[in-house]
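Fig. S4 source data, part A: sequence.
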Amino acid sequence: MKKQVLVGLCAAALPLTGQATDSKWNTDFAVGLEYGYDDNVIVDEIDLASSSGDDFFRFRGKGDVEFSPNEKDEFSAGISFSELQYNGNDQFDLRTILASAGYKRKINKYTLGFDIHHADAELGGDGFLTLTQISPSVSTFINRQHFLRGAYTYIHKDLDSTNVRDADSDEFSLDYYYFKNGLTQYFIVSGKLRFDDADDDELDYWSYQLRSAYKQRYHIFEQKNQLTIEFRYRDRDYDEIVNSTINDFRRDKRTTFSIENSWRATDNLDVILEYEYVDNESSLDSFDFDENAYSIALNYDF
């Protein structure tokens, strides 16, 4: 399973459905346990492809609180914990703590947002990565079926083991949602443009990413399910200076396909099956790889 802490700032969130204790307050808590197999363990932040497969366990816990003093304003805060352990490659074990805070303000048909995320990660029991994101955003429903969200994100990254990879990044994103049948059936199309300025100019890059996703809720014998199919393509161009390893400009092209099915086994318990395939084409031979990952997870909402 790829060690992408940056992605985890968004993806680590569990589907929470806790009950509000007051009309202005909402608190959500959840825990999750996952088992899976990854045929090529990757540490993305340091360009490490192990070419080694291993099975893994992951434990997750998360708590969120939201406060809405009126119909226009919403404050939020959350904290999550993730512990990923491999069966035979404990040097790749990853522990992550993520804290977040946010504010939203409704102005006519627009929602203005401001979010801060901070993550600390350990790899193999040692300090690995500190990551901070600051992101203002604006979103709106064009009508009941069409939704748009645009955001700018500033990212600061510190790696304990190698300071040359410390970086500041600017990212611009646009997301479009088409609700064909409300939340029962909808499509997502997204685009991102990112500029990464690392301490070592050889690691500077700019990239763009395209994403499309389809989500469908359905029933089997009156049991609730949700299917998610997702495709991502990312093109990363290291065109600042020639890479000293290959004596050429480095370029990475990554294609990712994933399919996931979530079954609501009880009012509080979800059973999730997921498969992900990654094809990373890189002019840096050591980071040119394919990856297949399979997992089953249990998520419990309090």
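Fig. S4 source data, part B ends here. The chain has one domain: 5-301.
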